[in-house]
């Protein structure tokens, strides 16, 4: 089935952009990024930016914007049955030229998993502002549960913030 992503959670002064590949079924059903209960994204955002799952979704989104963090997906449209990145076909990327024109302060791009990283390199890397750095992070998806939460958190902290401690 054809799947359409969401608009970015962002403010024009964003300095950090976190990119997934495409929202999964739980997210599409709720209209919220990373809505699956076992996805580690919001717990990680809680540790790093105070935007944890204990807050209402609107409050989490506001907290990230206040912290100059934007969230989006590399893909705008695709064909996919289910939620697995491996099943994505016929990719249509988001308009990163327009995004970076409106968000000129982005300095770091966190890529949530291998599919987001591969699609980003294929479609969006040419639009990255000078001086901005992209880093591939371990997927927060519950489908990638081989890595412990504490390990994911440490890699996300280091990759996004460059510091090993909270």
Automatic annotation (TrEMBL):
Domain of life per record: Bacteria
CDD domains xref list: UDG-F6_HDG (cd10032)
InterPro entries with a match to the protein in the record: Hypoxan-DNA_Glyclase (IPR026353), Uracil-DNA_glycosylase-like (IPR005122), Uracil-DNA_glycosylase-like_sf (IPR036895)
Stretches assigned to the Uracil-DNA glycosylase-like domain: 7-161
Pfam family, one: UDG
NCBIfam families documented for this protein: hypoxanDNAglyco
Protein name per UniProt: Uracil-DNA glycosylase-like domain-containing protein
